[in-house]
Design a protein that fits this description.
The chain is mainly alpha-helical and 377 residues long. Among the domains are: 80 residues, no CATH class; 82 residues, no CATH class. It is built from 14 helices and two strands; from the N terminus they run αααααααααααββααα. A two-stranded antiparallel sheet has the order 1-2.
């Protein structure tokens, strides 16, 4: 009876109901891209405690399909597979959900995440440990966070007394401290160094950083030179646009100088006084007839004060009247006279009309040019 009861106790211990729950997780730590070592250790311990580690390490071989033990092996192997998948993050589990067996699943996970260089993860752990602050967490929570990172770091760096390994770790720690002290401008270089299959030596890392610094300086100088040239080009182009004479017309051609853009009456070669002058800013200061000085001279020429001598010199009055008609013929079609010019013209015509009314007082010998007699009309 005692033997029977003992065998029943061993059977209940070996196969409790919890072992047949396919939704069970083997570890509270779920597999992601960075924690394979800690995850694999926790899962191996859980499987060993359930006498199922042989299904993933190859100790328990797959029997032939026609064997009497095949169904039993398949049932337990699929149970182990479900445990492994439930111990992964969902996005990771989707990658391995169609594995043939638990051994193939375990092997593929190791190939994908177990053979990665651990330098980047060690660097991140050391950085997180150095930057960790308690803040609003309780001491127990804060200690738990530190302990978790310490334990993971121990997995990547197990304790040893070998001098060669200790010297290598000391050099790695200097590299980690140097990379952590760099500014964010070297983030790409830092990632490149940490992702190498073998971490370079400290001197090699220093040389790489120095070359990158020189490259950045050269690139900045080239960018500044290119920017200065662009600004100079834009500034000069803008000045040229401001100095461009916008009145040019391609449908006009001068019969005097045979140039395109103007006619003979507006030719600067024939009439240099019409050529506009430009200021330093490229603006037109004056343009031939269309100037205030020209209008002022006309107003002065025909002002009331300048007509005082006309009555005493009829010949001068006739010559001035001819000049007046000539100027009106030239400018009257293109410009509108101002109020001052209208007043001057009216005064001049009025003075001339008064002179004609008093023609008997004008000696004939003082008048120049041909005279009209009664027989001419």
């Amino acid at each position: 009876m005692a033997g029977k009861s003992g065998s029943k106790g061993e059977e209940s211990l070996a196969s409790p109901d919890v072992e047949f729950n396919p939704n069970q997780r083997l570890s509270s730590v779920l597999l992601n891209e960075f924690n394979y070592l800690s995850w694999a250790r926790a899962v191996a311990l859980a499987l060993g405690g359930r006498s199922k580690l042989g299904y993933v390490n190859g100790v328990i071989q797959k029997p032939k399909s026609d064997s009497s033990t095949y169904d039993s092996w398949l049932c337990k192997d699929q149970l182990v597979m479900s445990w492994l998948l439930n111990s992964m993050e969902s996005r990771i589990a989707e990658i391995f959900s169609f594995s043939e067996s638990s051994m193939h699943l375990w092997k593929h996970v190791k190939e994908m995440y177990g053979n990665q260089n651990n330098a980047a993860r060690i660097f991140q752990l050391k950085r997180d440990i150095a930057d960790l602050q308690q803040k609003d967490k309780s001491f127990v929570q804060h200690l738990g966070s530190l302990t978790s990172m310490w334990n993971e770091l121990d997995v990547y760096r197990p304790h040893t007394t070998e001098a060669k390994v200790l010297l290598k770790r000391a050099e790695e720690d200097k590299i980690f401290q140097l990379l952590a002290s760099l500014s964010s401008n070297y983030e790409d270089l830092r990632s490149h160094i940490l992702m190498n299959a073998d971490l370079p030596s400290f001197n090699s890392v220093c040389a790489t950083i120095q070359r990158e610094e020189v490259r950045k300086k050269v690139m900045n100088m080239e960018n500044k030179t290119s920017l200065s040239e662009t600004r100079a080009y834009v500034s000069n182009h803008k000045k040229e646009e401001e100095r461009t004479y916008k009145g040019k017309r391609t449908d006009l051609k001068c019969s005097y100088c045979e140039s395109v853009g103007h006619v003979k009456d507006r030719c600067w070669v024939l009439h240099p006084e019409q050529k506009p002058k430009f200021s330093k800013e490229g603006k037109i200061l004056q343009n031939g007839w269309n100037t205030s000085s020209h209008k002022a001279s006309l107003a002065d020429a025909y002002s009331t004060g300048s007509l005082k001598n006309f009555t005493s010199n009829p010949a001068l009055l006739m010559n001035e009247f001819a000049a007046y008609l000539n100027n009106r013929q030239i400018h009257g079609k293109t410009e509108e006279p101002t109020i001052t010019e209208n007043e001057s013209h009216t005064a001049f015509l009025g003075k001339f009309a008064g002179f004609l009314a008093e023609t008997d007082c004008v000696p004939h010998e003082e008048a120049s040019g041909s005279r009209h007699q009664e027989d001419d009309w």
